[in-house]
Design goal:
The chain is mainly beta. It is 15% helix and 39% strand. It is built from one helix and six strands; from the N terminus they run E-E-E-E-H-E-E. Strands 1-2-3-4-6-5 form a six-stranded antiparallel β-sheet.
Amino acid sequence: AGDPQRSGSHDWSQLVGHRLESFICPTVTGALYKARHLRDQREVALKVVDRRLTTGDSAAFIARFQGDIAIAASIHHPALMRIHRCAVDAGVLCYSMELVPGRPWPN
């Protein structure tokens, strides 16, 4: 679920200005990837939201989601990961954030 590489004919090796490098783990709402921001050459975590969550009234969901991410991105605290940006690419909603080394938390 939430794996953009398994849907459609779009080239999913790149997404919203990022090159996907490896799959990290599934999440409740999609999937998390290690990626590289192509312009800044910065390693990031890229959260890809499952397409099933953006069907139906997707414009309202996407607008609300992007608003929530913008609020989260404005919070700066040493104990929180920095969120960089949120975007939609070929109908896939995703956001990039600071990549924290280590293993993912168990679901």
